[in-house]
Amino acid sequence: VATAGFRMILVVLATLFATCLLVANILAVKLVSIGGWIVPAGVIAYPLTFLFTDVIAELYGRRTASKVVWVGFGANLLMVILVFGGKLLPAAPFWESQPAYESILGMVPRIVLASMIAYLISQHHDVFAFHFWRKKTKARFLWLRNNASTMVSQALDTGLFITIAFWGTVPTGILANMLLTQYLIKLAIAACDTPFCYMLVGLLKEKVKQPPPIGAEAMV
Fold first, then answer.
1. Pairwise CA distance, residues 31 & 54, whole Å
2. Are 40 and 185 in contact (CB under 8 A)?
3. How far apart are CA 34 and CA 32, in angstroms?
4. What's the pLDDT score for residue 1?
5. Residue 43: DSSP 8-state
6. Mean pLDDT of 12-30
7. What's the confidence (pLDDT) of residue 219?
8. N or C of the chain: less Cβ packing under 10 Å?
9. pTM above the 0.85 mark?
10. Residue 92 scores a pLDDT above 90
11. What distances in angstroms separate CA 107 from CA 99, 125, 133, 157, one per listed residue?
């Protein structure tokens, strides 16, 4: 039987995951220049979602991590619907920021579709790969499992999103540059989160007190 602490920690981790996901999608409308590379500002938040799914997978099992991914998808879809609804509501006569609202929060359907597809495939792969390596390493080498799963998942996410969202709308050279730039930055951020993965698992494992056995699924 799951304890209150067991459930509360999961709620906190899932909330942090969903927060990073939604914030990343909002930040993505701003393009920033990092060392001459042009990337969406969301690149600072989205890689953190893989950190939280890895921690959840380590503490609660693959099934629970997959459920959290679906919850994040639902939250993202709800945000899109509500933002679109806000766009349709008539603006107050004195409010002059409707164009800014539509420019910042008005989401192009193709971008939304690309984001949703990339999210579902990359996040589910991350959960699968993390547990694949967990079995192979007999639950050892957390750094390897964290990075091996995230490296491929980030490649899937970047490749799917950039290709679906921008194929045919920008020159091939620029498209290739966007793919490489975003992947390298995401990879660097993901590598830097390894110590935090160890820290979170180390701090929370004793409080959870129900680590999933190798190859098994934790029930929540």
1. 28
2. no
3. 6
4. 46
5. G
6. 89
7. 47
8. N
9. no
10. yes
11. 13, 26, 37, 19
